[in-house]
């Protein structure tokens, strides 16, 4: 089977977003794989996207990798916008990594809930500690964990553990 590659549509800030995401993932406390921009193809004079004008020099296609996951993106104008129906799940090693990614990717406080946040480009992310899955193993205790999580914006591992322990 061929690889499935998420494709992201930006208005005009594709190159800025790719650089930001690559820098964010390369700065992670427990970086497992290098993140990088693989290549960029640009609009030339006379090329226009539907609903967009003056894209000369902007990105037709940009290919980048975040922790081994390949993405494609473009500057397509304001025709389509991101929404919360699509998000990217970042499994974090611990609270330190949750705090790091949350600090880098959360830019819209009113969109934060249960580990979900939205970045400055409008893309939604789930910043989730691996411990959440581990604490969901016991059916009775997992109810307390879920109830605690539903009250959180950024996930707090210590508070999840307290809920699991019944404290």
Report on this model:
The protein has two domains: 1-80, Signal recognition particle alu RNA binding heterodimer, srp9/1, CATH 3.30.720.100; 82-167, 2,3-Dihydroxybiphenyl 1,2-Dioxygenase, domain 1. Helix content is 29%, strand content 25%. The chain has helices spanning 14-26, 95-105, 130-134, 139-149, 157-165, and strands spanning 7-10, 36-42, 59-66, 69-75, 87-92, 116-118, 124-129. The radius of gyration is 18 Å and the shape is elongated.
CATH architecture of the largest domain: Roll
CATH-defined superfamily of the largest domain: 2,3-Dihydroxybiphenyl 1,2-Dioxygenase, domain 1
The top level CATH class name of the largest domain: Alpha Beta
Q: Note the run of SSEs as H and E.
A: EHEEEEHEEHHH
Please state the overall shape, judged from the principal axes of the Cα atoms.
elongated
Count of separate structural domains: 2
From the N-terminal CA to the C-terminal CA, the straight-line distance is: 47 Å
Low-confidence stretches: none
Task: Report the helical percentage.
Answer: 25-40%
List keywords for this structure.
25% strand; elongated; 167 residues; alpha/beta; single chain; 7 strands; Signal recognition particle alu RNA binding heterodimer, srp9/1; four-stranded mixed β-sheet; 5 helices; 2,3-Dihydroxybiphenyl 1,2-Dioxygenase, domain 1
